[in-house]
Amino acid sequence: TSETYPAGGSKLVSPDLLEEATSLNMASLTPRPSNGFLFAGVGLAIGEGCLSLYSGVDFTALVLTTVFLFLLDKVIVNGTIVEGFTKIVAPEYSRKVIRHEAGHFLIAYLLGCPVEGCVLSAWKAMKDERFAAGVTAATSFFDKKLSEQINGKKP
Questions:
Q1: Host H or E run for residue 23
Q2: Whole-structure pTM over 0.85, yes or no?
Q3: Which own/partner contact pairs does 40-47 have at CB distance under 8 Å and 24+ positions apart?
Q4: pLDDT (0 to 100) of residue 51
């Protein structure tokens, strides 16, 4: 019914409204926590430790170089190198991003918020002016004010 969905005006969407509109509880709409990045970090540290031991390269210099390269990737190319490597090493990450953005798309559709576009990679988000810097995947809405708020361009 038209009273159920805020498409006619308000863009305020409460968890109760989401549950009512989708017939799903909030737990099924919330991404499950993952320790993938934690394990990757531990694996990288162990790898750097082994490399340091066997090559004689200073461990601190190796770690600082790695941190510098990660920051450089994030600042210059929006994290596309790390994202690409992550998608190769952990293909389930790509599926998780796709499901997440599909959820945004579905909820927007159900609530009557017209979707303008969707990007699923940091590279495409970086090239698309609709998305704020640092966005790696996102859904953009025709409602300019709403889209800017969601994408962090305006409070």
A1: none
A2: no
A3: 40/86, 40/89, 40/90
A4: 93
